[in-house]
From TrEMBL:
TPR repeats lie at residues 662-695. It comes from the Bacteria. PROSITE patterns: HTH_CROC1, TPR. Keywords: TPR repeat. This is Tetratricopeptide repeat protein. Pfam families: HTH_31 (PF13560), TPR_10 (PF13374), TPR_12 (PF13424). Transmembrane segments: none annotated. Residues 11-66 form the HTH cro/C1-type domain.
């Protein structure tokens, strides 16, 4: 028979399991609210079969559970059997092997815990699959909880905005545990005590799904070590970890392989294999978010169109529209909005601005610049966003966003607000990069790069010394490139060329040739918009040098000659000297050493006619002296080489120019080597190598190591030669340099 108090209790338990009010359930199955009230109170002795079927559908019941419900099996006294409230298992559950293993390990060790329930706090962003994982694992281990499995949707993040009161959840659990309505205590505290006493000593799994915060969960925790609690939340529930001994499990995006497996399950392997090129693009567009992948697969199933058509819809601009199902429970944009709605106004503003950040991640100081807020206040806002799983602190003090969250955030910010924020952020990167560049190469202070005052609310990152500057440039490299591209596209011309300057030494030493060319190309374009001929000349010159190093000599020479004309036109003899030194390198690359020497001598003449012996003039003179000496050495006049290079070394040492000291020591080593003065050659090479390594000058370290190996070989020291050549080969292999082959030949034929 389907009726009576047993059926009514079952209806109430299922309704509360899903977090539905009587009004919600009545609307879902198309009956009056009073009907639902009468059914739950047992005042309808024989509900219509159609109503029973509608209720079963609304509760998602299938198989034996559905048959039992429809046949009135719930008239059996609930206290005489285990409580079972789990929703149906997830269809075609995919991936999460590591997370399932961690939950299994937690369960395996639960018997050795102290006299409290073991808690796992499963957190992650909206749509990441927290509920699916929790329900799937609960079904996998249900047999290990013979006294039942309790489940409740706490509606912490829900389209209705009605967060479930813990007292309501407890009353639902008491129903499921067989407590008759008349026996439920009146006060919430007494109900919680009754709930805990019923679970004492019972092997029960309690799944608390979609929790808002630790306070909502804490009242529902059993006090028995025989119970295990699995909590899911978009918030990190740090309080449960701190005071209740919860074990954190943060759920991240699916891997590309897991994402493909999900598409295989939903679409079938044959269809996926038929368009192998489309699948990686779908996976990338959905960024490992299970909900997004499921929606994309559903759209493909419904339309039957080629997967390439779905790829076209999942473009950057329209991605969230393509993932709009029209159902608030599964629409990506809508479920993100529930998390966004919980934020304080300052955190919500920062979240919006983060969506327009051009790089992959950012530091706290950069986020403060984006927001135009103090660093300490921004740190608190980032903590709020992290707790809400709207950003991820993937490394200490560095924050990133899921691609789809970023797309959602970008929709919420106005163009004016975004433009102002990005100008502040680019200013932060410009000021810090230029500071870092001067710390990496202190003598570049001789080159004037006047910076605009930092805008209000913008701080430069604190950097102390050469090593810290190189570390910052390494960490921020991708962000700085993105900032330079944004500055160029947004017409921030001064920032565009200054970022190229700030990155130049790092690019030069670390052999980032393509990046060096790209930033100086943008800098030349930007400089054409500025009324500063010296800046335009400088950008042409540096672009020419970048082209030369990349192996594009014709373009490099053209840029150098353009710079030469500009510097000559404004009477800048130091600039003229710099370009002649660059042209000497072009001539050397072409094998014309006599022309190379002539350009070096013209550079030396230009610096000597530049006026007062300032630091800038003297250091350029030293560079020219060393270059003249180098080409004399290559042309076989080692005595002249030593004379010029020793003079250069004295000047560089007086001014403490470590970079050019290293270059000059290398030149002196070459001259001594070819005079067969091997002891002096080794000494100079080793000092140069130490300096190049300290400065982070990878390619020059490799070159000097090869020459050191040559010197040892000529001196008959085969083991020392092999060691130096091997180190040189390792560096050149890492940098993917063609010159690595010459060292391989030496190792193969001479050692």
């Amino acid at each position: 028979m389907t009726g009576g108090s047993g059926f009514g209790l079952a209806v109430r338990a299922h309704r509360r399991r899903l977090g539905l009010s009587q009004e919600d359930l009545a609307e879902r199955i198309g009956v009056s609210i009073s009907t639902i009230g009468k059914v739950e109170a047992g005042r309808i002795s024989q509900p219509r079969p159609a109503t029973v079927r509608l209720l079963a559908d609304a509760f998602g019941l299938t198989g034996d559970a559905r048959d039992s419900f429809c046949q009135g099996a719930d008239e059996v006294a609930p206290a005489a059997r285990p409580a079972t409230q789990l929703p149906p298992d997830v269809h075609s559950f995919t991936g999460r092997a590591d997370e399932l293993a961690r939950l299994d390990a937690l369960l395996a060790g639960s018997g050795t815990r102290p006299a409290v329930a073991v808690i796992s706090a499963l957190s992650g962003m909206a749509g990441i699959g927290k509920t699916s994982l929790a329900v799937h694992w609960a079904h996998r281990v249900a047999a290990q909880f013979p006294d039942g499995q309790l489940y409740v949707n706490l509606r912490g993040f829900d389209p209705s905005g009605r967060v479930m009161d813990p007292a309501d959840a407890i009353r639902g659990f008491l129903d499921a545990l067989g407590v008759a309505p008349g026996q439920i205590p009146a006060s919430p505290d007494a109900q919680a005590a009754r709930y805990r006493s019923l679970l004492a000593g019972r092997r029960v799994l309690v799944v608390l799904d979609n929790a808002r915060d630790a306070e909502q969960v804490r009242a529902l925790l059993p006090g028995s070590p025989t119970a295990l609690v699995l909590v899911t939340s978009r918030n990190q529930l740090t309080g449960l970890l701190a005071t209740d001994g919860a074990h954190p499990l943060n759920l991240g995006a699916l891997s590309p392989r897991e994402s493909r497996d999900l598409l295989n399950d939903r679409l079938g392997i044959e269809r996926v294999d038929a368009e192998p090129g489309a699948v990686p693009e779908i996976v990338a567009a959905c960024a490992g978010l299970p909900l997004a992948l499921s929606i994309a697969a559903a759209r493909a199933q419904q339309s039957g169109f080629p997967l390439a058509a779905l790829v076209a819809d999942l473009t950057e601009a329209g991605r969230l529209n393509a993932l709009d199902t029209g159902d608030p429970l599964s629409d990506v944009r809508t479920i993100f909005s529930w998390s966004y709605a919980t934020l304080t106004p300052p955190a919500a503003r920062l979240f919006r601005l983060l969506g327009r950040h051009p790089g992959a991640d950012l530091s706290t100081v950069a986020a403060a610049a984006l927001a135009g807020a103090p660093v300490a206040a921004t740190r608190r806002l980032l903590a709020e966003l992290t707790r809400a799983s709207l950003v991820t602190e993937h490394r200490p003090g560095r924050f990133s966003q899921h691609d789809l969250l970023r797309a959602y955030a970008a929709e919420l910010v106005s163009p004016e607000e975004a433009g102002e924020a990005l100008s502040r952020l680019i200013a932060h990167y410009v000021h810090t990069a230029c500071t870092a560049n001067r710390l990496v190469y202190p003598n570049l202070d001789a080159i004037a790069v006047p910076l605009e005052p930092r805008p209000d609310g913008v701080e430069a990152a604190p950097i102390a010394g050469h090593d810290a500057a190189m570390a910052w440039l390494t960490t921020e490299h991708a962000n700085l490139l993105a900032a330079a591209a944004h500055a160029a596209g947004a017409g921030l011309h001064t920032y565009a060329w200054q970022l190229a300057w700030g990155l130049d030494t790092f690019h030069y030493r670390q052999w980032h040739l393509h990046d060096q060319v790209a930033t100086w190309q943008a800098a030349v374009t930007a400089a054409r918009h500025l009324d500063r001929p010296g800046v335009l000349a400088y950008t042409h010159r540096r672009l020419g040098e970048a082209y030369r190093r990349l192996g594009r000599p014709a373009e490099g020479s053209a840029q150098a000659r353009e710079a030469l004309a500009l510097f000559d036109g404004i009477g800048d003899q130091c600039g003229v000297a710099d370009v002649h030194l660059d042209l000497s390198m072009h001539a050397e690359r072409e094998g014309n050493l006599e022309e190379a020497l002539q350009h070096a001598e013209r550079a030396l003449a230009a610096t000597r006619s530049a006026g007062a012996a300032t630091e800038s003039v003297e250091l350029r003179t030293a560079r020219a002296l060393n270059t003249v000496g180098w080409f004399h050495a290559l042309l076989g006049d080692q005595d002249a080489a030593l004379t010029f290079c020793r003079e250069a070394l004295a000047i560089n040492t007086r001014w403490g120019d470590e970079e050019n000291i290293a270059f000059t020591l290398d030149s002196l080593g070459y001259a001594h080597q070819h005079r067969h003065d091997y002891e002096q050659a080794v000494d100079h090479y080793e000092r140069a190598i130490d300096a190049f390594r300290r400065l982070g000058y990878a390619s020059m370290t490799a070159d000097a190591l090869e020459r050191l190996g040559d010197t040892h070989h000529e001196a008959g020291k085969r083991d020392a030669a092999r060691t130096a050549w091997t180190e040189s080969l390792d560096i050149r292999t890492r940098l993917e340099l063609e010159s690595a082959e010459s060292v391989r030949v030496k190792l193969r034929t001479r050692s």
